[in-house]
Here is the input.
Amino acid sequence: MTTTNATPTRVVILGGGFAGVYTARHLLRRLGRRRDVEVELLSEENYFVFQPLLPEVAAGGIAAPHVVNPIRELVPGARFRCCKVVSVDFEQRRVLVSQGAGLELVPVPYDHLVFCLVKVSSFAAMPGVAEHGLAMKDLSDAFRLRNHVVRCLELADIVAEPAAKAALLHFVVAGGGFSGVETIGELSELVSRSLGYFPRIDPSEVRFSLVHSGARILPEMRASLGDAARRILERRGVKMLLGARVRAATPSAVYLADGSVLESRTFVCTVGTAPNPIVGAALASGGFARAELDGRPIAAFATERTLQCVGRRGYWAVGDCAGIPSPTGQGLCPPTGQFALREAALCADNVLRAIDGRPLRDFAFRALGSLASLGRRSAVAELLGVRLTGFLAWFLWRTLYLAKLPGLVRRLRVALDWTLDLLFPRDITQLAVLRHEHLHVHHYEAGEAIVRQGQIGRELFVILSGEVEVSADGAGAVARLGARDVFGERALLEDTPRNATVRATRACDVLVLNRSEFHAMVRSLPVLSDYFLDLLRSRHPDALARAEPQLALGRE
Ligand SMILES: Cc1cc2nc3c(=O)[nH]c(=O)nc-3n(C[C@H](O)[C@H](O)[C@H](O)COP(=O)(O)OP(=O)(O)OC[C@H]3O[C@@H](n4cnc5c(N)ncnc54)[C@H](O)[C@@H]3O)c2cc1C
Here is the structure.
């Protein structure tokens, strides 16, 4: 693939994370003034996220914009295209992307293609987790979690019902890997440092639970460090649910596979991933070999030690989507930022070697160590064989990650955030960024109340699957409703509190419309206002007189 004419060789990199951005940076550095090779980076966002600091953003220790860099700033000289990769046409050697305001499909040709697309969250096997769980992968996740936690504290400070308060003050995280452990450590810091502002919350009322399917947290680290992290978190009151798996989640509870239920309004799920759709399609029908770990196929490209995809010249994989044989001779390189950075450097070198017809080099990096921050000035670390726990490890963690953060300006901003954080309390401003403000789906398990008698009615519900029972004080069960039935209309049309409790009798999914959406729809669609008029006539003839004027608007 050496270039012999004036057309430059095109290297296209898919993904703007650690792997993609650093592959592009190394390529540009090595290319210098060469004009025979063109580098183009494609990514869905125009910024690079330094993921190891996300739990600190979620805990309010660092301002969200300080852990991201504009990709254009990191790769000056490369072409950057902010777009979504839709598919790869391996025959024509072009990537199809959707871009621009009209999301038009555009082909991007390549000679060499570098896959740097990370796995995506997939909660399909756990009903309700996609709707009610919070992820910890992107900046928006961290931002949303911080606001959600502050909102829970605000509500817990004023709620009267003890069970509701307990659920608001119970913070559950699933996943005992780096992101789960660091998230629960940082959350415990955010909550404990904020409690001074909430006089009606006693610290003893706050609970944290970490659900992990393995026997030991931080399985990527040495057993002694994983155990040390567990002890530190337990001393802080984090309950370890080891050997446990999440089965489902609802707005107010997390259901485990062993039948136990954790009443909680905050559920962060760091487990459950699926291959990136582009990687999945390439593995399924693009003729790429799938990597194996412990004899089982995984959702990553099998690569040579050179990072070239097995049997596919001109195709490379770096970062979490690559199954690269470990230089230790055992297993694969771990999916970490530390490895992605080293892989990116070698990939850039080997792509140029391939273009120039020189022999390729093998990946030879061995981990320098690993570190996990636990919040509250504590961490566990192993560096070059030296093991540390507590404050020293935490200091090391901060120093190393500060040094790794790209860009002097970002480094200074994070250093300033950390300095201010040592001196002042955490910011408990709650910004209105929570989702579920529009049409959304809720999952409920059998026995859970969806609405309670006496509550103010703010939503209309359409049952998508499952079954519910409607009951009223004094009258007992008055109806059973199933798929495609509607409930909650009376309180919205009459502007009165709910006159019945609706409880799931089987696991169910319900579509939720908020008040303004409901009113906009019945006012603009006569067929809907007629439907609700008939419904009221059959269910609540006594309410007809008060609701009719509202519904009449839809037929004017
Ligand atoms: C909370 C958390 C904490 C972590 N802590 C550590 C740590 O302490 N130490 C460590 O070494 N590692 C840590 N990691 C892991 C590390 O961040 C990952 O291993 C690393 O980010 C992988 O790099 P990547 O480039 O493969 O993926 P990513 O950095 O996730 O990048 C993937 C890129 O692909 C883009 N993309 C995906 N689909 C498309 C599409 N269809 N079209 C266009 N673009 C697309 C995305 O926008 C993104 O830019 C942590 C991860 C998380 C989530």
Notes: The first helix runs from residue 18 to 31. Residues 15-20, 42-45, 51-52, 54-55, 84-85, 116-118, 136-137, 178-179, 276, 278, 319-321, 335-338, 340 surround flavin-adenine dinucleotide (CB under 6 Å).
